[in-house]
Amino acid sequence: MKCPKCNEQIMSFVDFYLWSHPFSTKCKKCGVKIQPDSKIKKTFLLEVVLAFVLFGIVDLTLGIISLKGLIAYILVTAIALFPFEKYSWENGSYKEKE
Ligand SMILES: [Zn+2]
After folding, report:
1. What is the Å distance from ligand 1's center to 45 Cα?
2. Domain residue limits, the chain
3. What is the pTM of this model?
4. How many angstroms does the Cα of residue 64 sit away from the middle of ligand 1?
5. For residue 98, what pLDDT is reported?
6. CA dihedral for 42, 48, 49, 51, sign (positive or negative)
């Protein structure tokens, strides 16, 4: 993921996967305000919906208010969201915020 201004790497894929969000951020190198494009935003919305659905499934099967349920939820969600994050990473971009 490159900065639209200085063309430096904004963040690593791991950072993107763990901390990506649909809001604006700053380039760590040049400090320009940047925002994700609609692909990243739409994919994020899908991920939120998916996370809620998985929450319901885990709650119905294991019960979310248990250590087992909680661990299962975190693992299942991390795996399920991975392809979406990868899609965003490969197809999305950041643009300079006006
Ligand atoms: Zn920059």
Report:
1. 26
2. 13-96
3. 0.84
4. 41
5. 81
6. positive
Please, which residues have CB within 8 angstroms of residue 38's CB and are 6 or more apart in sequence?
A: none
Q: Splitting the chain (98 residues) into consecutive groups of 10 residues, what average pLDDT does each group show?
A: 92 85 86 93 95 96 92 95 94 92
- Could you say which DSSP state residue 28 is in? T
Confidence (pLDDT) at 28: 85
Distance 2 CA to ligand 1 centre (A): 8
Give the integer Cα–Cα distance in Å for 80 and 92: 19
User: What are the C-alpha distances in Å from 85 to residues 33, 55, 97?
Assistant: 22, 19, 22
Cα(30) to centroid of ligand 1, in Å? 4
Q: What is the CA(9)–ligand 1 centre distance, in A? A: 8
Strand segments, DSSP code E, in the chain are 25-26, 33-36, 94-96
pLDDT at 22: 81
What is the bridge-based pairing of β-strands 25-26 and 94-96? Answer: unpaired
